Amino acid sequence: MDTPTADTDLSSESPSLQVHARHADDVLADLETSLSGLTVDEAAKRLEQYGRNQLPAVAGRHPLLRFLAHFHNALIYFLLAAAIAASLLGHFVDASVIVAVVLVNAVVGFVQEGKAEKALNAIRNLIAPHAHLVREGKHVEVPVDEIVLGDIVSLEAGDRVPADLRLIRASSLRIEEAILTGESVAAEKRVSPAPKEAALGDCHSMAYSGTLVATGQATGVVVATGSDTEIGRISTMLRDVQPLTTPLLQQINRFGTQFTWVTLAVTVVLFAFAVLVRGHVWSEALIAVVALAVAAIPEGLPAVITITLAIGVQRMARRNAAIRQLPAVETLGATSVICSDKTGTLTRNEMTVRRLEASSGRMMVSGSGYVPEGRLTAETAANVEDTRPTDIDSLILAGLLCNDAQLSNTDGEWHVIGDPMEGALVALAIKAGLEPESTRHEWHRLDEIPFDAKHRFMATLNGHASEGARIFVKGAPDELLQLCSLQADGEGSRSLERDAWTARIAEAAAQGERVLGLATKRLPSGTHKLTFADLDDKLVFVGLIGFIDPPREEAMAAIKECHSAGIMVKMITGDHAATAAAIARQLGLDDDPHVLTGRELDDIADSDLPDIVTETSVFARTNPEHKLRIVRALQSTGAIVAMTGDGVNDAPSLKQANVGVGMGHKGTDAAKEASQMVLLDDNFASIVAAVNEGRVVYDNIRKVTAWTLPTNGGQVLAVIAAILFNFAMPMSAVQILWINLITGVTLGLSLAFEGAEPNVMQRRPRPAGQGLLTPFLVWRIGLVSFLFLMAVLGIFFYSLGRGDELAMSRTLVVNTIVVLQVFYLFNVRYLHMTSFNWRGVLGTPAVLIAVSMVVFAQLAFTFLPVMHRLFDTRPLGIADGVLIIAIGIAMMIVLEVEKTLVRRTGWLGL
């Protein structure tokens, strides 16, 4: 036997060969194999030529290099500069805290990066360890990595497919392909060629590596192994996707770089000015500019931002969203597009009977999921439950008896044991007043024809003590219409109106429903065997049953909230276009959704794709490449994209998205490892709740920044003024460190615990390129810094003017700055509304605790003798204390008036 040439490409996506569309005999001939399998020698040759059937392991960087890489960014240099500045002043505790923050950040990043690399290895674990093959006409079990092109593989229910196979034989074969297609219902498989243009989920002649055999048996020939399989191509795509930097990290890096250079430039200029112009001794000038650097650098800001993110993680966990990577908390707040899977996320992933179509008319069924509670209501009001037509009762009975499923109630939760659609039929029977166990006992099963993809139906023979023997058939409606010549009509039957039923099927499909047909036939009493010949004559078509996977009610509310928040929601599903469009309408996603299929996406150039995907709300029959292209196209428009997914097919797009959202219940390990967030309840509403929390986190980071930088800015301006105008420093360097340390870890940190402002989900998403310092914050930093400067210089020169010693004047200045920071804290708690409200005045427990701590610390700073020695302070009188508090109140009033004017005029985008 000759070996296939090295350039042979037999993958299902090969444009030239497309094995899913070719006859099995032709594929066997091309691979130079047969049903007897390869010889052992030939298999060994092919193994050497093509390599092992395994996915490549991740070749990660050396752990030390990965760890050191986390120190290479502007923020870390910024922090280390702060540590050096603190060390130069002898404040080694502060320096140690800063270094500890740097190390913690590096360790957390190192651990998270290691988890990300597990995403690829999680995919490798989906391949079974052994497989059953036919070689030299004998059935053998071999390690899965020794499978080669042309091997003949046997599959049984429960097996995981070991490689991509072109099916040669199949009996009642259904394969769960959700990890590749997202479809919740097992795919029916058969040997006949699929259409050339078939999407992955429609390739009924193929079995793909990593998928699970649900029912039946099959034999297939291996057409792709290792990286050439569908799952291997996804692994390659995942490896090629580069992780994105979150908006917050981009902004902090940009801010840290700019801030570091500005601070360095200012200190150098002032040092030169002090030595060359003012004639100061260089050591004194150095102390002065170090004091400036200490005043300028917000040592506690990065730590407080990290804590703010961590608090957001805890809040999200309470809302069923587990964060795997800390910056994802804030990125969620910037999300402008959510791309969501349909099944189980927007819908319940529980099949429910929605309509019954019989000759007598139509009845709609209420209720959701497998909970057997609901009503059957006819379209004509006169037709109510207690006068249900006979053919409707026959339809329900047929669905219950031609059925192997059972419903189970565990801790108040209803679950189906068996096929989801059959479980929905059992729930329907209970809603209609039947008791499944007793009804099945009365109509005991005598024989059956199991479902098979060849004939696309299931049939049972049931016997009843008084009704005799009867056949019940359930299957594809078009198949049953071909078998039937009659249709039920009350107690009797009449000629089948095939065209009318075809129209009803099309109508149900247009509503996004999956449709089953049911038929029946009476047999003579005493019949105990069922054959295909029994179905050839006088089979009576009873009607149709339409199923839906009902939308989650909370998902509908969440989508409405997204729209009010300016967030686009896009459904990306492997389901059919009609089903996806119908669900989109029911969800309120779009009244007239524009649906784009994967096949149509293939014909769109990358340059044209961004505009098209922006206008499209539903994508159907998509594969992994399509999802990745959609996410990248949206990102090219500047959108911040959150992407949900549960299968291996979703892993590349999850990794590419700004926030990948894995499913906690039904998600594969590969999807979870590629995600930054995991939904513990697989619920779309939890994503929106997480977006809400993300916006709160970003608001709180802005509040921390808006509080920290101006309060430091006032100190910086005071030091600069002292150097430029050659007067005594209003504060010593150690006093500046005291202010920053005592207020930064109390007042600044309290803002991390702020709740949501009332309008947080009525605002548009912030622009992707928006910096950490918005125009309003820049204005606020300048204004508040100036007000702080005026207050500091005013109280300083007032004290010196009345004859106070320098130590007393500096004590007044330090207490004035701290009081101003306290009052400014209450102002900055609400950036989008006035702080003069009951909530604003009371403050959160965190704010009240922080203010209490600062008050006690300042009392100790001012009155304890040990603090006098450490910080060269003096005790203050009551009149001075009242004056300082009055200054704080005056500043808060000024800033509240300013905030109100800015908000009402829309100036600076507030």
TrEMBL record:
Asked if the keyword Signal belongs to this entry, the reply reads: no
| Span of the signal peptide | none
Annotated localization: Cell membrane
User: What's the main place this protein lives?
Assistant: membrane
Gene3D superfamilies assigned: Calcium-transporting ATPase, cytoplasmic domain N, Calcium-transporting ATPase, cytoplasmic transduction domain A, Calcium-transporting ATPase, transmembrane domain, HAD superfamily/HAD-like
Q: How does it sit in the membrane?
A: Multi-pass membrane protein
Pfam families per record? Cation_ATPase, Cation_ATPase_C, Cation_ATPase_N, E1-E2_ATPase
**Alphabetical list of SMART domains matching this protein:** Cation_ATPase_N (SM00831)
UniProt superkingdom:
Bacteria
Task: Give the Cation-transporting P-type ATPase N-terminal domain ranges.
Answer: 18-91
Q: Which residues span the membrane?
A: 71-89, 95-111, 259-279, 285-311, 709-729, 735-756, 777-800, 812-830, 842-864, 876-895
Q: Which UniProt keywords apply?
A: ATP-binding, Cell membrane, Membrane, Nucleotide-binding, Translocase, Transmembrane, Transmembrane helix
Q: Which family does it belong to?
A: Belongs to the cation transport ATPase (P-type) (TC 3.A.3) family. Type IIA subfamily.
Protein's UniProt name: HAD-IC family P-type ATPase
User: Species name for this entry?
Assistant: Vreelandella neptunia
